[in-house]
Amino acid sequence: MDRALHPTLDKVISILEYKQFIVDNGHVTDRLASPARCPVCKHDMRLRGGQTQDNEHFYHVDHNSYCPTKAKNALPYLILFPTHPDPAIVRANKEFLKNHLEHIYTRILKIAPCLAFKEEFIEILKEASRLNIYAYANLKPEYLPYVLVTLINFLPSRSYQKKRIYKFIFMYDGGIENFDQLWIHDGFNANLYRYSYNNTTPITASPIETNIDYLSAPYIKLSPKQIDWCNKII
């Protein structure tokens, strides 16, 4: 992986920035410096490789520690399904998605480049219905794009015209085990990252802005047929 969390600050840094941190703190090697951290599990990471070829990367110091980035598939944040869904809440969340479908599609396309409508966006909607994410009582529908992207793996083979190079998996930082934990104290309570994988190897972590500015931004128009297809699934 070529990105990690700063040793002491809450920001993602590159390998070069970590090396600068080592120098700035008067250390000869990274072994003597404070370790970087994994953005998701927060466990220690250090540098490996790069001596004989261009393959330097961050790795987890504790090989036995659990981290979702080591998994091959999307991380399910639905450990517990809603047990007593409120029909009014479900209806309101679905109506928000229908009424802002093009804005949400455009936002997901922005953070998951080469999004394929049929192979990926439709599959996301199918998963959302199958898992009934609309039943979460604390779900804030304006943040739906940042929940929907966690439901599937974005594979190169399923991307638009197969133009995507790496597999994308979207994950929240450590401590988030289900969607209910995303909304605490009436706010959005997590950092979202897009992990790029070369097969099963995580290459880079990109922080995603979870803002709601997309609702007032220009959006891509879907055809009446596409909108009808989406609405039937929702």
Structure in words:
The structure is a single chain. This protein is α+β, with helices and mostly antiparallel strands and 234 residues long. It has two domains: 3-66, no CATH class; 87-233, no CATH class. The chain is 27% helix and 18% strand. The protein is built from six helices and ten strands. The protein has helices at 15-24, 87-99, 101-111, 117-131, 144-148, 224-233; strands at 3-5, 12-14, 36-37, 44-48, 57-60, 167-172, 183-184, 187-188, 192-198, 201-208. The strands form four sheets. A three-stranded antiparallel beta sheet has the order 3-4-5, with no helix packed on it. A three-stranded antiparallel beta sheet has the order 6-9-10, with no helix packed on it. It has a two-stranded antiparallel ribbon with strand order 1-2.
| Percentage of residues assigned to helices | 25-40%
Give the overall pLDDT as a whole number: 84
SSE pattern, N- to C-terminal:
EEHEEEHHHHEEEEEH
Weakly predicted, low-confidence segments: none
Distance between the termini: 36 Å
Characterize the largest beta sheet: strand count, sense, and whether it forms a barrel. Answer: 3 strands, antiparallel
Radius of gyration in whole Å, from Cα? 19 Å
* Strand proportion: 15-25%
Gross geometry: elongated
In order across it, which strands form the biggest sheet?
A: 3-4-5
* Number of helices, counting only DSSP H or I runs of 4 residues or more: 6
Structural class: alpha+beta
Number of beta-strand segments = 10
